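pasting for ref
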Amino acid sequence: MRHGRPFNPLPARTPLAEKVRLLRYGRGLPRWNIACDAHVTDGWLGHVENGDICAPDPTRLAQLAHALGVSYLELHDAAGYPHLIRADIPQDLMHLVYVLLELPDGDRRRFLRMAHAFLEPEYRKLFPDTEWVS
Protein backbone atom coordinates (compact mmCIF):
# COMPACT_ATOMS: atom_id res chain seq x y z
CA MET A 1 0.00 0.00 0.00
CA ARG A 2 1.38 3.40 -1.00
CA HIS A 3 -0.03 6.72 0.12
CA GLY A 4 -3.14 5.03 1.51
CA ARG A 5 -4.05 3.34 -1.80
CA PRO A 6 -3.45 -0.30 -2.66
CA PHE A 7 -1.33 -1.15 -5.69
CA ASN A 8 -3.67 -1.63 -8.62
CA PRO A 9 -1.93 -3.41 -11.49
CA LEU A 10 -5.07 -3.56 -13.63
CA PRO A 11 -4.25 -3.73 -17.30
CA ALA A 12 -4.05 -0.28 -18.80
CA ARG A 13 -5.88 0.68 -21.96
CA THR A 14 -2.83 0.65 -24.25
CA PRO A 15 0.39 -1.37 -24.45
CA LEU A 16 2.40 1.80 -23.76
CA ALA A 17 0.32 2.65 -20.70
CA GLU A 18 0.70 -0.85 -19.33
CA LYS A 19 4.45 -0.93 -19.99
CA VAL A 20 5.10 2.46 -18.36
CA ARG A 21 2.92 1.70 -15.36
CA LEU A 22 4.53 -1.71 -14.77
CA LEU A 23 8.05 -0.30 -15.16
CA ARG A 24 7.34 2.47 -12.67
CA TYR A 25 5.64 0.17 -10.16
CA GLY A 26 8.45 -2.35 -10.59
CA ARG A 27 10.93 0.29 -9.51
CA GLY A 28 8.72 1.35 -6.61
CA LEU A 29 8.82 4.99 -7.66
CA PRO A 30 6.06 7.56 -7.42
CA ARG A 31 4.81 9.08 -10.65
CA TRP A 32 6.09 12.56 -9.82
CA ASN A 33 9.62 11.19 -9.42
CA ILE A 34 9.65 9.66 -12.92
CA ALA A 35 7.96 12.76 -14.36
CA CYS A 36 10.65 15.00 -12.85
CA ASP A 37 13.45 12.80 -14.22
CA ALA A 38 11.80 12.75 -17.66
CA HIS A 39 11.26 16.54 -17.67
CA VAL A 40 7.51 16.12 -18.14
CA THR A 41 4.60 16.99 -15.88
CA ASP A 42 3.07 14.54 -13.46
CA GLY A 43 -0.26 15.07 -15.23
CA TRP A 44 1.22 14.21 -18.64
CA LEU A 45 2.70 11.01 -17.25
CA GLY A 46 -0.67 10.20 -15.66
CA HIS A 47 -2.33 10.55 -19.07
CA VAL A 48 0.24 8.17 -20.57
CA GLU A 49 -0.28 5.62 -17.77
CA ASN A 50 -4.07 5.83 -18.13
CA GLY A 51 -3.88 5.32 -21.88
CA ASP A 52 -5.16 8.80 -22.74
CA ILE A 53 -1.92 9.51 -24.62
CA CYS A 54 -1.02 6.46 -26.67
CA ALA A 55 1.51 7.87 -29.14
CA PRO A 56 3.46 10.66 -27.43
CA ASP A 57 6.00 12.90 -29.10
CA PRO A 58 9.17 10.82 -29.75
CA THR A 59 11.33 13.30 -27.83
CA ARG A 60 9.18 12.98 -24.72
CA LEU A 61 9.09 9.23 -25.21
CA ALA A 62 12.91 9.14 -25.27
CA GLN A 63 13.03 11.24 -22.08
CA LEU A 64 10.56 8.89 -20.42
CA ALA A 65 12.57 5.83 -21.48
CA HIS A 66 15.70 7.38 -20.00
CA ALA A 67 13.90 8.16 -16.72
CA LEU A 68 12.56 4.60 -16.52
CA GLY A 69 15.99 3.12 -17.30
CA VAL A 70 14.92 1.31 -20.46
CA SER A 71 15.85 1.72 -24.11
CA TYR A 72 13.88 4.06 -26.29
CA LEU A 73 12.98 1.14 -28.55
CA GLU A 74 11.06 -0.62 -25.76
CA LEU A 75 8.68 2.30 -25.42
CA HIS A 76 8.75 3.06 -29.15
CA ASP A 77 7.39 -0.40 -29.92
CA ALA A 78 4.86 -0.25 -27.08
CA ALA A 79 3.58 3.07 -28.46
CA GLY A 80 2.85 1.32 -31.74
CA TYR A 81 5.16 3.44 -33.86
CA PRO A 82 6.29 1.79 -37.09
CA HIS A 83 9.58 -0.06 -36.85
CA LEU A 84 12.52 2.18 -37.62
CA ILE A 85 14.67 -0.54 -39.10
CA ARG A 86 14.45 -0.58 -42.87
CA ALA A 87 16.38 -2.78 -45.27
CA ASP A 88 17.54 0.17 -47.39
CA ILE A 89 19.17 2.01 -44.45
CA PRO A 90 22.62 0.84 -43.30
CA GLN A 91 22.63 -0.62 -39.78
CA ASP A 92 25.33 1.82 -38.63
CA LEU A 93 23.08 4.71 -39.54
CA MET A 94 20.12 3.16 -37.72
CA HIS A 95 22.31 2.66 -34.64
CA LEU A 96 23.20 6.37 -34.80
CA VAL A 97 19.50 7.26 -34.95
CA TYR A 98 18.78 5.17 -31.84
CA VAL A 99 21.70 6.73 -29.97
CA LEU A 100 20.51 10.22 -30.92
CA LEU A 101 17.01 9.46 -29.67
CA GLU A 102 18.37 8.47 -26.27
CA LEU A 103 20.54 11.58 -25.84
CA PRO A 104 19.32 14.37 -23.59
CA ASP A 105 17.51 17.03 -25.60
CA GLY A 106 20.29 19.66 -25.42
CA ASP A 107 23.01 17.21 -26.50
CA ARG A 108 20.87 15.97 -29.38
CA ARG A 109 20.29 19.53 -30.60
CA ARG A 110 24.01 20.34 -30.40
CA PHE A 111 24.89 17.23 -32.38
CA LEU A 112 22.27 17.95 -35.05
CA ARG A 113 23.47 21.56 -35.41
CA MET A 114 27.05 20.32 -35.92
CA ALA A 115 25.90 17.69 -38.41
CA HIS A 116 23.87 20.29 -40.30
CA ALA A 117 26.85 22.67 -40.53
CA PHE A 118 29.05 19.82 -41.74
CA LEU A 119 26.58 18.41 -44.29
CA GLU A 120 25.00 21.61 -45.64
CA PRO A 121 27.64 22.18 -48.37
CA GLU A 122 27.05 18.62 -49.63
CA TYR A 123 23.29 19.11 -49.63
CA ARG A 124 23.69 22.28 -51.66
CA LYS A 125 25.71 20.38 -54.28
CA LEU A 126 23.15 17.57 -54.45
CA PHE A 127 20.13 19.88 -54.57
CA PRO A 128 21.31 23.12 -56.24
CA ASP A 129 17.78 24.33 -57.08
CA THR A 130 16.52 24.09 -53.51
CA GLU A 131 15.93 27.28 -51.52
CA TRP A 132 17.69 26.86 -48.16
CA VAL A 133 16.45 28.28 -44.89
CA SER A 134 19.00 28.77 -42.14
